[in-house]
Design brief:
Elements lengths: L5 E7 L6 H7 L5 E6 L6 H7 L3 E4 L6 H11 L4 E4 L4 E3 L3 H8 L6 E9 L7 E11 L15 H7 L5 E10 L4 H7 L1 H15 L4 H13 L3 H12 L9 H14 L3 H14 L4 H13 L3 H12 L3 H7 L2 E2 L5 H13 L3 H14 L4 H13 L4 H11 L5 H13 L3 H5 L13 H10 L3 H17 L4 H19 L4 H6 L2 H16 L11 H4 L1 H13 L3 H10 L4 H10 L3 H13 L5 H13 L3 H14 L4 H24 L9 H18 L8 H8 L2
Helix pairs in contact: 7-8, 8-9, 9-10, 10-11, 10-12, 11-12, 12-13, 13-15, 15-16, 15-17, 16-17, 17-18, 17-19, 21-22, 21-23, 22-23, 23-27, 27-28, 27-29, 29-30, 30-31, 31-32, 32-33, 33-34
Length: 681
C-alpha cells in the first residue's frame, strides 16, 4: 500500500472555544497547518498543543489569500480543508483508504450544517474539501472561496469524485453566528467582492443569503430575482437559489409566484426533493390538498444519494418531512388511519421528530384510542432511555392535552428532569393536583437556579410557580419571591402590591411599572388560561383592564368561546377591541353562517392591521358566500327551462373557490380535546 500522506489546513481567528473539538477529530493526520489571522485568545496555544504548525498572517479580508498561504506551507500529498467550527466525522482510516490508488484529483465531502440542537435542524451540502497537493491549484474568492475552478482548468469534471466523507459544521448555530457577528462580516466581504466583480452572480447570491439570515427578506428577494436572470443554467448553486427564493416567497405568503417559478424548474431539477416539498407547501397553503399530496409523494420518492451529491438540502426533505405532511393532509381529509400510517413511516426515518410524534398521537386520539394507550404506543415507538426521548414523549402527550396520562407516567421511567418538568408540572396544575405541582416546582426551580439557566428559562418556572401559588394561596408566596431573579421578582411584587391595594400605583418613576412589566403580565394571563386556572388571569384583568384583549384571545384559542365572547362584548362596548379580537369575533359570526355581519368584523380587523392575511382570505370567503346565496336565490326564481345556463356555471365556479379557500389555514385551529370541550359548551 502506498504511503500517502494527509494534511489538514485551517484558518483561525479567536476560535479557542471550538478549535479543540475540531483538532481532536483529525488526530493522527500527518500534518496540521494553521493560518492564524490575528487571534488574541488561546487559539495559537491550542493549535500548537495539538501538533499544528502555526503561521501568523495579517488578515487582508480575503479568505482565498489566507487559504493559499496555507497551501504554500503544505508538505503532504493530500490536503483536507476544515474550518475551526467543523469536525471530521469519518474515521481517519476510512479517509486514508480512499486515497490509496485513486486517480481522482479531488473529492467532494458531505457537510452537515447545524442550525439548531435537534437532529432535524441541519442543512446538508457537498463541497470540494479534499484534493491533491503540489498540482498548482489555488483558491479563489474573497469569501466562500473555492478550489474547484483551479482543478477544472486542468482537468475535466470526472477528476472530482464524490466521497462519503462526512463533516459537521456548527458555525450557523444562532449563538455562534451572533457571538462572532458573522452576518456583518460576511456582508462586508461580499460587498467588497461585488465592488471588484459587480457582474459575478455568485457574490450576489451569497449576499442575498446573508440578507435572509439578517431577516431582510425583501432585499434578499430582490437580489435573488435579479441574479436569477444572469446566473448560468449549469451553475452548481442555481438550484439552491430557486430553493431559497421559494422559501422567501412562502414566508411572505406569495404563493401565486411560487407555482409558475417552480414548475419549469422542476423539469431541470426533478430529483431535488426540496423543490417538490416547497411546491407541496405552496399548494397546501392554497387549499389544493390533492396536488400537494402528489408533490410530497414525489419528494419522498427521491433517494438520499441523488440529493446528497448534487444539492443543498434540509435534513429529511425526502423522508420524514414530506411523510409528515402526507399524514397532516390525510388527517385534514378525515383519513385518520392513513394519517397514522404516514406519521409512523416518518418516525421510522427519525424517531424523535416531534411533529410526527404529535401527529400520530393526535390521529389515534381521533380514532378513539385512550390517552393511556397512546402513551404506551409512544413509549414503544421511542423507548425512553435518555432525556431527549423522554422529552419527545411527554411533549407529544402534552400537545394532545393528555394531561392525566402524563401525571400517571411512572417516575421510575420518567424521573423529574429539566427537559420535561415544565410539561409535567403543567399537567399536574391542569388536572388539579396543585399541591404536588407546587412541591415539584420548588424542587425544579431550585435546581434550575443552581444551574444558571438564562432568564427565559427561569421565566417559565416563575410563571408556573406564580399561577400555582395564586391558585393555592391567593397571592405570590414568599418562597417564590426568594428564588426568582430580580427582574421577575419586581414584576411579581408590583402585581401583589397592586392587588393588596386593589388599585394601580400612580406613576412616580420615569418608567411606568405597568409598561415595564407588561410582557410578564401578558404571559401570566395566557399561561393561567392554558393551565385552566382562571383566578390569576381574572385578578390581573380586574387590576389592569388594558390586558382584557389578551385574556379574551387566550380563552378563545383554548376553545372556551363562551367565556371569550363575554369579554369580546365588553371590549367592543368599550371600543377597545384590537385587530385580533375583531378577527375572532368575525370568525365566530362566520361559523354561524352570518356572512354579511362577519365581513364587517373582518373589514374592521383589516383597517387596524392591513397585513392580516387570514382576515383578507376570510373576507373574500364572506363575499363569495354572499354572492353564492344571491345567485342561488336568482336561480331558484327561474323557470325550469332556464335553470341550465351561465348562472349555474358561475355558481359552480363560486362553489369551487369557496371549497379551496375553506381548505386554506385561515381559521383558528383547536386540538381534538379543545374541540370536544368547545362542542360541549
Amino acid at each position: 500500500m502506498n504511503n500517502i500522506t494527509l494534511g489538514v489546513h485551517l484558518i483561525v481567528n479567536n476560535e479557542a472555544d471550538l478549535l479543540p473539538h475540531c483538532l481532536t477529530s483529525v488526530a493522527g493526520v500527518d500534518e496540521i497547518v494553521v493560518i492564524d489571522t490575528g487571534s488574541t485568545d488561546e487559539s495559537i496555544a491550542i493549535s500548537q498543543a495539538h501538533g499544528a504548525r502555526v503561521f501568523q498572517r495579517e488578515w487582508t479580508e480575503n479568505f482565498a489569500a489566507a487559504r493559499n498561504e496555507g497551501l504554500d506551507q503544505a508538505d503532504t500529498d493530500w490536503i483536507l480543508v476544515l474550518d475551526a467550527d467543523e469536525r471530521l466525522q469519518t474515521p481517519l482510516p476510512e479517509l486514508r483508504s480512499l486515497l490509496q490508488n485513486t486517480q481522482a484529483q479531488a473529492f467532494t465531502v458531505h457537510i452537515d450544517n447545524w442550525l439548531g440542537v435537534r437532529p432535524e435542524d441541519k442543512v446538508k451540502h457537498s463541497a470540494v474539501r479534499l484534493f491533491r497537493n503540489g498540482q498548482g491549484y489555488r483558491y479563489s474568492g474573497r469569501i466562500h472561496e473555492g478550489i474547484d475552478a483551479a482543478i477544472l482548468k486542468s482537468h475535466n469534471i470526472s477528476a472530482i469524485e464524490h466521497s462519503d466523507i462526512e463533516i459537521e459544521h456548527f458555525g450557523y448555530m444562532p449563538e455562534i453566528m451572533a457571538r462572532k457577528n458573522k452576518i456583518k462580516r460576511n456582508e462586508q466581504l461580499l460587498r467588497l467582492a461585488l465592488a471588484e466583480q459587480p457582474e459575478d452572480p455568485f457574490h450576489s447570491y451569497n449576499l442575498a443569503v446573508t440578507c435572509c439570515q439578517d431577516g431582510r427578506l425583501l432585499e434578499a428577494e430582490t437580489l435573488l430575482r435579479q441574479t436569477l436572470h444572469h446566473v448560468p443554467l449549469e451553475a452548481s448553486y442555481r438550484p439552491t437559489m430557486i430553493r431559497d427564493l421559494c422559501k422567501i416567497y412562502l414566508a411572505q405568503g406569495k404563493t401565486n409566484i411560487i407555482d409558475p417559478l417552480l414548475l419549469p424548474e422542476l423539469e431541470r431539477y426533478e430529483d431535488y426533493s426540496d423543490l417538490h416539498f416547497l411546491l407541496g407547501q405552496s399548494l397546501e397553503s392554497q387549499g389544493l390538498l390533492e396536488r400537494a399530496f402528489q408533490a410530497y409523494q414525489r419528494a419522498a420518492s427521491i433517494s438520499g444519494d441523488q440529493v446528497n451529491q448534487k444539492y443543498v438540502s434540509e435534513q429529511g426533505m425526502n423522508t420524514f418531512r414530506p411523510l409528515y405532511r402526507l399524514g397532516l393532509i390525510s388527517e385534514r381529509l378525515e383519513l385518520q388511519e392513513d394519517a397514522a400510517r404516514f406519521y409512523h413511516r416518518a418516525l421510522q426515518h427519525h424517531s424523535l421528530y416531534r411533529p410526527a410524534l404529535q401527529g400520530i398521537a393526535s390521529a389515534f386520539q381521533r380514532l378513539a384510542v385512550t390517552d393511556e394507550e397512546i402513551a404506551t404506543l409512544l413509549i414503544q415507538l421511542v423507548p425512553p432511555t435518555n432525556a431527549a426521548q423522554r422529552a419527545a414523549i411527554i411533549d407529544s402527550l402534552f400537545a394532545i392535552n393528555a394531561n392525566e396520562a402524563i401525571t400517571n407516567l411512572s417516575r421510575d421511567t420518567f424521573p423529574l428532569e429539566l427537559e420535561t418538568a415544565n410539561w409535567m408540572i403543567s399537567s399536574l396544575i391542569i388536572t388539579g393536583k396543585l399541591e404536588d405541582a407546587y412541591t415539584t416546582i420548588r424542587q425544579m426551580a431550585s435546581l434550575a437556579t443552581q444551574d444558571n439557566h438564562d432568564l427565559e428559562y427561569l421565566k417559565k418556572w416563575a410563571t408556573l410557580w406564580a399561577i400555582c401559588s395564586w391558585s393555592l394561596f391567593g397571592e405570590f408566596h414568599n418562597d417564590l419571591l426568594t428564588y426568582v431573579p430580580d427582574e421577575l421578582r419586581f414584576g411579581l411584587q408590583y402585581i401583589q402590591k397592586c392587588h393588596q391595594q386593589q388599585k394601580v400605583d400612580p406613576v412616580e418613576a420615569e418608567v411606568d411599572p405597568l409598561t415595564l412589566h407588561s410582557s410578564f403580565i401578558s404571559d401570566l394571563i395566557e399561561q393561567s388560561v392554558k393551565l385552566h386556572q382562571p383566578a390569576l388571569s381574572e385578578a390581573l384583568v380586574n387590576l389592569f383592564p388594558t390586558f382584557r384583549s389578551e385574556l379574551a384571545a387566550a380563552l378563545y384559542k383554548e376553545g372556551n368561546r363562551n367565556a371569550a365572547g363575554e369579554h369580546f362584548i365588553r371590549l367592543v362596548s368599550d371600543q377597545a377591541a384590537d385587530a385580533k379580537v375583531l378577527f375572532y369575533i368575525g370568525e365566530m359570526v362566520f361559523d354561524k353562517g352570518h356572512y354579511t355581519e362577519a365581513s364587517e368584523w373582518f373589514q374592521q380587523a383589516l383597517e387596524q392591521m392591513p397585513e392580516h392575511e387570514a382576515a383578507r382570505v376570510v373576507l373574500a370567503l364572506c363575499y363569495l358566500q354572499q354572492a353564492k346565496l344571491s345567485m342561488e336565490d336568482a336561480l331558484n326564481s327561474l323557470d325550469a327551462a332556464n335553470v341550465h345556463g351561465p348562472l349555474q356555471t358561475d355558481i359552480g365556479a363560486i362553489h369551487k373557490s369557496i371549497f379551496l379557500l375553506n381548505r386554506t389555514p385561515w381559521h383558528t385551529q383547536w386540538s381534538f380535546r379543545q374541540s370536544e370541550g368547545r362542542a360541549a359548551k
